[in-house]
Amino acid sequence: MPDMLVKLYELPPSGDLVRSLAASGIQIRRAMAPDKVRILSWIEEHSSISARGEADTCFSNTPISLFIATEGKTIIGYACYDATAPNFFGPTRVLDAKQGLGIGKALLLASLEAMRAAGFAYAIIGGVGPAEFYAKTVGATIIEGSTPGIYKDFLGSRLIISD
Ligand SMILES: CC(C)(COP(=O)(O)OP(=O)(O)OC[C@H]1O[C@@H](n2cnc3c(N)ncnc32)[C@H](O)[C@@H]1OP(=O)(O)O)[C@@H](O)C(=O)NCCC(=O)NCCS
After folding, report:
1. Residue 64: pLDDT above 90?
2. Using CA positions, which residue lies closest to atom 5 of ligand 1?
3. C-alpha 104 to ligand 1 mean position (Å)
């Protein structure tokens, strides 16, 4: 489970995707502090306790470094950045029943655009699971020798932290 590098100066545009999701009732937006507990509970339930811990740090950042996908008042996905380490993307997850609609890509692009706006030229996808997803959507490339990388002292399972 290596890390991957993304060129933030070559991101694909996100506008059409975000508009088409909005037209089908799916919103991509930055998390709000009043929703912190319900978002963290959702992440623990649908990802893991480790992902919850990482996401919790996002609420200490200004602005909050976590995007959610919602349908009405229902959370259907999330993505964190600046959580595991500064300039890192992840963890992320889309509800199984909502995968394949472009939500994961929209959450990824929202996060990467935020990192680009903060001044970064590159971003790192931490301990990837689906490398093909990141290669296909944002041209990410594997960082050689990055396994286990910063996770070498992680107390949990490498598989758990990736979701
Ligand atoms: C990875 C994940 C966030 C992707 O979300 P998603 O909403 O299903 O993905 P999207 O619909 O935005 O997919 C965008 C494109 O990537 C492709 N893609 C999605 N998941 C993929 C995968 N695992 N492998 C290869 N390609 C993938 C899609 O086919 C789509 O291609 P298209 O534009 O040609 O149609 C989601 O599958 C998920 O939550 N997985 C479980 C948790 C996880 O693995 N998190 C990542 C840890 S690093």
Report:
1. yes
2. 104
3. 6
